[in-house]
């Protein structure tokens, strides 16, 4: 081997060691995250809440065609900005929104502070494209945050990682927002600093924020289902996550990247699919056994206000979804898309009142419970609290017989939750078996209460 080859090999080895050091250092920053005790406590509280309100509202609401209208209709961003002069939600009532959420049995609110169109719903100093430049001219987030704090309603803030209007966002590699007229080359370092500045505002000027709900990672990946799910850019999550936890250690971080949780994240989310399902084609990840889990879903088929979408879910459908989520140890974040004037559609309000009435009677079997007691059954699912199992029967079998595996457990009493009437049961081959009384029907749910020694 000649000297030149030896020198080349040494150079290559040094280069590889250098790259390994960088990778190890980067991974170390993320892997070294140790949640603050207040953060761990906040995770438990978040999981116990089980039911939250998602709110998609912004300039896109004016168009009445959903929150993706800028992308879907291939509107030039310069034209889209004109919507600022039409945004004047004179019937926005922050106190009413929070009251409605509480009356519906919801225990937290997740509000879209900035969606993919880049419009900020607060008085930000780092973008002129914000609510203060509208006809309304008021800090909507502050009004909502103040009411949430006043009414003791935890507030989570959705924040978009992508932006269809900014020139510094690396749009050349993005999957969306390709028709908004941008000509810049993108500068992620500058864009990252912009996001840090805005997150600092959100976590410094609006009191206690219970969580940051990130979305948009998928814009820089190959289509869902592709074997290569890696991102085309380095999002520097270690820096973003460290900033959030530094500003508010108890603030929970979730990221709608459709992947298994990454280091530094405090809860996992699924979009329009219960864990273990993938009807939407979005969710290929397994549910975490270590972090709280949340699924988000719409009340019709749209996130933002959509004039053409009247596919409203019934109260029974939502109650079933909530029960099935809890049975999988998962929260349900249910979305509404308020109208341009600030009112929430009466179809949503009326349905949520019915859900709230059901939860007033049956909330004990949802709030503060644990799921994954047994695998979901054709007849329903189970939630648990201490030594009590709540057996949710959503579909009564033809023979009205329910069988539940109870290996190693000693049942003491089985009653109907509604009236505490005793139900006879037998145990065969480590299965508890009972027959539903003919006097009860699943509308929308039959709950039996099984108490163990």
Task: Give the integer mean of the pLDDT values.
Answer: 92
Strand line-up across the major sheet: 5-4-3-2-1-8-7-6
Major sheet characteristics: 8 strands, parallel
Structural class: alpha/beta
Question: How much β-strand is present in the residues?
Answer: 15-25%
What would the CATH topology of the largest domain be? TIM Barrel
**Helix-strand pattern:** HHEHHHHEHEHEHEEEHEHEEEEEEE
Structure description:
With 453 residues, the chain is an alpha/beta fold. It folds into two domains: 33-365, TIM Barrel; 380-452, Golgi alpha-mannosidase II (Immunoglobulin-like, Sandwich), CATH 2.60.40.1180. It has eleven helices and 15 strands. The protein has helices at 3-31, 37-49, 60-63, 69-72, 77-80, 94-103, 140-150, 188-204, 237-247, 315-327, 346-362; strands spanning 51-55, 108-114, 155-160, 211-215, 252-255, 268-271, 293-298, 330-336, 380-385, 388-393, 401-405, 411-416, 425-428, 431-435, 446-452. α6 crosses α7, α6 (94-103) packs across α11 and α8 (188-204) runs parallel beside α9 (237-247).
């Amino acid at each position: 081997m000649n000297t030149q080859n030896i020198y080349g090999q040494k150079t290559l080895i040094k280069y590889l060691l250098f790259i390994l050091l960088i990778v190890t250092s980067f991974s170390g920053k993320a892997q070294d995250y140790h949640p603050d005790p207040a953060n761990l406590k906040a995770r438990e509280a978040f999981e116990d809440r089980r039911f939250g309100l998602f709110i998609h509202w912004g300039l896109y609401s004016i168009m009445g065609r959903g929150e993706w209208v800028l992308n879907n209709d291939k509107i030039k961003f310069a034209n889209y900005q004109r919507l600022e002069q039409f945004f004047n939600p004179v019937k926005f009532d922050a106190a009413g929104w929070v009251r409605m959420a509480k009356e519906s049995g919801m225990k937290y609110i997740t509000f879209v502070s900035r969606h993919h169109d880049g419009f900020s719903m607060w008085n930000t100093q780092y973008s002129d494209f914000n609510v203060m430049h509208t006809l309304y001219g008021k800090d909507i987030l502050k009004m909502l945050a103040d009411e949430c704090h006043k009414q003791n309603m935890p507030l989570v803030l959705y924040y978009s990682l992508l932006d269809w209007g900014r020139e510094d966002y690396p749009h050349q590699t993005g999957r969306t927002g390709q028709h908004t007229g941008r000509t810049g080359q993108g500068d992620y370092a500058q864009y990252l600093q912009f996001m840090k500045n805005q997150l600092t505002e959100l976590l410094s000027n609006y009191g206690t924020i219970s969580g940051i709900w990130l979305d948009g990672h998928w814009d820089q990946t190959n289509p869902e289902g592709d074997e290569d799910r890696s991102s085309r850019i380095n999002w520097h999550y270690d820096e973003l996550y460290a900033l959030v936890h530094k500003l508010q250690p108890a603030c929970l971080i979730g990221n709608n990247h459709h992947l298994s949780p990454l280091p530094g994240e405090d809860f996992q989310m699924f979009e329009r699919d219960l864990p273990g399902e993938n009807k939407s084609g979005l969710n290929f990840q397994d549910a975490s056994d270590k972090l709280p889990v949340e699924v988000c879903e719409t009340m019709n088929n749209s996130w933002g206000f959509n004039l053409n979408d009247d596919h409203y879910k019934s109260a029974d459908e939502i109650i079933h979804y909530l029960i099935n989520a809890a049975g999988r140890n998962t929260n349900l974040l249910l979305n509404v898309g308020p109208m341009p004037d600030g009112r929430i559609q009466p179809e949503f309000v009326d349905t949520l009142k019915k859900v709230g009435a059901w939860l007033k009677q049956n909330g004990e079997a949802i709030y503060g419970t644990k799921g994954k007691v047994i695998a979901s059954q054709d007849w329903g699912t189970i939630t648990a609290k201490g030594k009590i199992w709540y057996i949710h029967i959503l579909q009564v079998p033809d023979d009205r017989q329910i069988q539940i595996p109870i290996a190693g457990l000693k049942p003491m009493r089985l009653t109907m939750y509604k009236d505490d009437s005793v139900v006879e049961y037998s145990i065969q081959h480590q299965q508890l078996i009972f027959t539903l009384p003919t006097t009860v029907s699943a509308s929308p749910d039959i709950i039996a209460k099984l108490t163990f020694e």
